[in-house]
Amino acid sequence: MKMMAASIIAGWVWASALQAEERVVVKALSGRFEVVQSFQVDGSQGDGVFSEWVRFREPPFHRVSLMGWAWPGIYSISRDENWLFRTQKTGSGDSTAILYRIEDLGRVSEVIGFDEMIWRFSDAISRWKQEDLYHTGVESIDWSADSSALEITLKGSLASKSGEGIVCGIRYDLKTIEPQLLRLRMNREAERVVDGR
Q: SS3 string of 127-161?
């Protein structure tokens, strides 16, 4: 009985420590804000959600919560610190792209439908559509030197044929809100490159 009580207490202490641990995952170079994650245990099986938020150094908005998921997000901040990009795992081999605008007063606004928009753009130029692919998501991103554009590489594997898939490079203009093709490669075909820079 004492052993069981000690195990329960030890488990509770361990779960509490997991819940309480905050981790800064990315920080603006100026120190103006940072993205923080904390795993919140939900239930006895260790299931839970990553609570994530943008923490600002100064008020009025000290903490702005972001949507929580079962997996931690991966973040990147634009050089001018006005944009925050999030790659979020959503399932086995799949992820979604989320873009946030960081405003001067500490507000954080999500660009609604960003992931759907970039995949629609890819679908319009590729014979293989997102619905034909599995293990889809963002392979890489990069910000332009002047923070006017975000370069995103989407990747997906063809569900019907092993080893086939697409890699689509898109340049997303943050001022005009327009996507532009940089490169498109469908496995076993020559890569089509567009000089969009």
A: CCCHHHEEEEEEEEEEECCCCCEEEEEEEEEECCC
Query: Where are the strands (E) in the chain, listed by range?
Result: 23-27, 33-41, 48-56, 63-69, 74-77, 83-91, 94-102, 108-110, 133-143, 149-158, 165-173, 178-186, 192-193
The structural domain count of the chain equals 1
Q: 91: pLDDT confidence band, cut at 50, 70 and 90? A: confident
The number of CA neighbours under 13 Å toward the Cβ of 135 is 13
Which residues span the domain enclosing 137? 2-193
Express each pLDDT in 6-24 by its tens digit: 444 444 444 444 455 899 9
Q: Could you tell me if 74 and 87 are in contact, meaning their C-beta atoms sit under 8 angstroms apart? A: yes
pTM of the model: 0.80
